[in-house]
Automatic annotation (TrEMBL):
Classification via Pfam families: Semialdhyde_dh, Semialdhyde_dhC_1
Broadest EC class assigned to this enzyme: oxidoreductase
Swiss-Prot/TrEMBL keywords: Amino-acid biosynthesis, Arginine biosynthesis, Cytoplasm, NADP, Oxidoreductase
Catalytic activity: N-acetyl-L-glutamate 5-semialdehyde + phosphate + NADP(+) = N-acetyl-L-glutamyl 5-phosphate + NADPH + H(+)
Occurrences of domain Semialdehyde dehydrogenase NAD-binding (ranges): 6-127
EC annotation from Swiss-Prot or TrEMBL: 1.2.1.38
Species in which this protein is naturally found: Arenimonas composti TR7-09 = DSM 18010
Main localization (coarse): cytoplasm
Protein name listed in UniProt: N-acetyl-gamma-glutamyl-phosphate reductase
Length: 321
C-alpha cells in the first residue's frame, strides 16, 4: 500500500506552482497526485520541469474533477477569487482532504487556519483548511511581531517586490520593459496585505507597496513608533530572542539585501536603527516572495498537517552560510 501522502496542485503553471512542484518532487514523503493547468493540459511535466523524472502530465481539472482525484491534500495556487468552487466541491465530496489555499480568499475567515508557522503553529493541530499568508504580509508580520506589545502607533511599511509577485497574467506590474530603471508604486493604501497584517496581528499597519525590475525577492522597511525608549542591545535582543529557534528566520546585525535572499527559503531581518531617543525603531526584512512568501511556507503547512517535521524537504542552510 502506498502510504506517502499524495498532493494535487491546481494552478501548476504559475510561478508559485512551479516552485511547489520542485519542492514536492524532491520531498522525502510527499508525492504529486496531479498537476492542473488549462494551458499545459496534456503536456508532460518533465518538459517544463526537467528535474522531474516521472511520467506525470498536466491535466485541466475543474473543481469537481479535482475533488474526485483521491488526493490527500490539494494546494490551490490560483489567482485571487477562484478558490471557492474548489473548496465547495471538496467540502461536499472529500471533506477530509487537506486544502492549502495560496490566495487571499480565506485569510480573513475564522474557520480557516492561517498558516504562518512561526507565529501561529500553536493552532495548527488538526487543521484541514489552511490559508497561506501573503508574501509581503509574511515579511511584515515577522518584522513587527517582536515589538507588537511595545507599539505606540501603527507601523509604516515601505515594501518593494520583484515582479514575479504580480503573477503571470500580463500587467504593468510584471512587464520587465516598463519596470526597467523604474520603481512603480501601487495600492498605496488599503492593499490586501495591509488589511491581512492588521487582522492577524490585531494591530493596524500602514503599507506602501512598490514593484521593481528584478524577478524575485521583497524588501520591507518597517518604521515602528514605540511606547517607551529602547536601547540598541535591547532592540536586537528582542528579535534574536523571538526567533532563536526558528530555522527559517535569520536575525542579522546589518541590513539584509534582496540579492541575498533570492531563491532562499528563509526570511532575514536586520538593519535595526533607533531614533527619537529610542522611541522610534526601524527594521528591514527580506523574503523570497515565491518561497517563504508562498511555496516553502505552503510546504511547512503541509508538513504540519501530515505530522512531519515542519521543515522536512525545505533546504536549510547553516546560520553562518
Ligand atoms: N507570486 C507570488 O509571489 C505570490 C503569489 N501568491 C498567491 O499564489 C497564487 C498563485 O500566484 P502565482 O503563481 O504568482 O500566479 P500565476 O499567475 O503565476 O499563476 C496562476 C495559475 O493559475 C492558473 N489560472 C489562472 N487563471 C485561472 C482560472 N480562471 N481558472 C483556473 N486556473 C487559472 C494558471 O494556469 P492556467 O492558466 O494554465 O490554468 C496558473 O497556473 C495567487 O493567489 C497569488 O496571489 C502568494 C504569495 C506570493
Ligand atoms: C508585485 C505584486 O503585484 N505583488 C502582489 C503580491 C500579492 C500576492 O501575491 O497576492 P496574495 O495576496 O494572494 O499573496 C500584490 O501586491 O498584489
Amino acid at each position: 500500500m502506498n502510504t506517502r501522502p499524495r498532493i494535487g496542485l491546481v494552478g501548476a503553471r504559475g510561478h508559485v506552482g512551479g516552485e511547489l512542484i520542485r519542492l514536492i518532487a524532491a520531498h522525502p514523503q510527499f508525492e504529486l497526485a496531479f498537476v492542473s493547468s488549462r494551458e499545459r493540459a496534456g503536456r508532460a511535466l518533465r518538459e517544463f520541469e526537467p528535474a522531474f523524472a516521472g511520467d506525470l502530465r498536466y491535466v485541466n481539472l475543474d473543481a469537481a474533477a479535482a475533488a474526485g482525484q483521491g488526493a490527500d491534500a490539494i494546494v490551490l495556487a490560483l489567482p485571487n477569487g477562484l478558490a471557492a468552487p474548489f473548496v465547495a466541491a471538496l467540502d461536499a465530496m472529500a471533506p477530509q482532504t487537506v486544502v492549502v489555499d495560496l490566495s487571499a480568499d480565506y485569510r480573513f475567515d475564522a474557520a480557516w487556519y492561517y498558516g504562518l508557522p512561526e507565529l501561529t503553529r500553536a493552532r495548527a493541530a488538526g487543521a484541514r483548511r489552511i490559508s497561506n499568508p501573503g508574501c509581503y504580509a509574511t515579511a511584515m508580520q515577522l518584522a513587527i511581531a517582536p515589538l507588537c506589545d511595545a507599539l505606540a502607533a501603527p507601523p509604516q511599511c515601505f515594501g518593494v517586490s520583484g515582479y514575479s509577485g504580480a503573477g503571470t497574467t500580463p500587467s504593468d506590474r510584471n512587464d520587465p520593459e516598463k519596470l526597467r530603471d523604474n520603481l512603480m508604486p501601487y495600492s498605496l493604501s488599503g492593499h490586501v496585505h495591509e488589511r491581512e497584517v492588521g487582522h492577524q496581528l490585531g494591530q493596524p499597519i500602514q503599507f506602501m507597496p512598490h514593484v521593481a525590475g528584478w524577478f524575485r525577492g521583497i524588501m520591507v522597511t518597517v518604521n515602528l513608533h514605540l511606547a517607551r525608549a529602547f536601547g540598541a542591545d535591547e532592540l536586537r535582543a528582542r528579535y534574536e530572542g523571538h526567533y532563536r529557534d526558528e530555522p527559517l528566520v535569520r536575525v542579522l546585525a546589518s541590513a539584509p539585501w534582496v540579492s541575498r535572499i533570492a531563491a532562499r527559503h528563509h526570511v532575514e531581518i536586520g538593519g535595526f536603527t533607533l531614533a527619537d531617543g529610542g522611541r522610534r525603531a526601524v527594521a528591514v526584512a527580506t523574503i523570497d516572495n515565491l518561497l517563504k512568501g508562498a511555496a516553502s511556507q505552503a510546504l511547512q503547512n503541509l508538513n504540519l498537517a501530515f505530522g512531519f517535521a515542519e521543515t522536512l524537504g525545505i533546504p536549510l542552510e547553516r546560520s553562518d552560510a
